[in-house]
Specification:
single chain, 282 residues, alpha+beta, Thiol Ester Dehydrase, Chain A
């Protein structure tokens, strides 16, 4: 019998989780995501997607305050939406916390939306994130709370030329470098047998690693490689990426909103990241 989700867990913050940012950890993350931006490689300023690292440990208890723990093997990363108030820098002492804000029943499973918040130890807001977890084939028993903010790709842009196209190679050892750099030990990224037992073709790349690839594609193409210019960065994970594959990110400028870009990432013309949105300040 399917266990329903638990609405009483919604809106409850996790205990604060402290994280000290070092130049070495910033550099390790940049190298693990093939990031070409020198400030990231030098450990001065963190890659935008590095923002997941300080808050990662708080996500698990938050989601399972709503979802019965027996569904752990059913979870996939559905969407990730970063809102940046400033970049993370070496020497920052950060405090992160998470709260689940809603869940929704869908035709092929159920999703849980979490709000992730990172501040300095003095209370300065550094970033907020909306993380959507998808539970395959799981019936939540209904819907409750909030949904994540929208970042749907405008279909009319497909009839126009992108402003940039960036192709990158996902290395065979990418997941083994990304796992320690990010703190994500999920076995589907490290153990082929475990991945196959979960219904996957083999080891798959971390979704956030691929999002990090797209972040430097956007920064180098339309933001002058300046991390501080990126104010929002959102994606929907559509298909797994395998080590050894090439990914191509196509970036379109919004015809209506200056500084807003939409993007999509493909492997052999199959979309692996959809509904990409980047908001870039002058």
């Amino acid at each position: 019998m399917t266990e329903p989700f638990m609405p009483e867990g919604l809106g409850e913050w996790t205990d604060p989780d402290k994280f000290q940012v070092t130049a070495e950890r910033i550099t390790e993350y940049a190298k693990a995501t093939n990031d070409p931006i020198q400030a990231h490689l030098d450990g001065e300023v963190a890659s935008p997607v590095f923002a997941i690292v300080p808050v990662f440990n708080a996500m698990i208890p938050a989601v399972f305050s709503v979802v019965p723990v027996e569904y752990l093997g059913k979870v996939l990363h559905g969407k990730q939406d970063f809102v940046f108030h400033r970049p993370i820098k070496a020497g920052d002492n950060l405090v992160a916390r998470v709260k689940p804000i809603g869940y929704q029943k869908q035709s092929t499973g159920s999703v849980v939306v979490q709000l992730l918040e990172t501040r300095t130890d003095e209370g300065e807001l550094v970033n907020e994130q909306y993380m959507t977890a998808f539970f395959r084939g799981v019936d939540s028993g209904g819907s409750a709370g909030e949904t994540a903010p929208d970042h749907t790709f405008p279909e009319q842009l497909r009839d126009t030329e992108p402003v940039a196209v960036v192709t990158a190679h996902v290395d065979e050892d990418q997941t083994f470098r990304y796992s320690p750099a990010s703190g994500d030990p999920m076995p589907i990224h490290l153990d082929a047998e475990m991945a196959q037992a979960s219904g996957l073709p083999g080891i798959i790349a971390h979704g956030l690693c691929i999002q990090a690839f797209t972040s430097w594609a956007v920064l180098t193409s339309v933001a002058g490689s300046k991390t501080e210019r990126l104010k929002r960065f959102a994606v929907r994970f559509a298909k797994p990426v395998l080590p050894g594959q090439d990914i191509t990110t196509r970036i379109w400028a919004s015809p209506d909103t200056p500084g807003t870009y939409h993007f999509e990432t493909t492997v052999d013309d199959v979309a692996v990241i959809k509904d990409g949105l980047a908001e870039v300040a002058d």
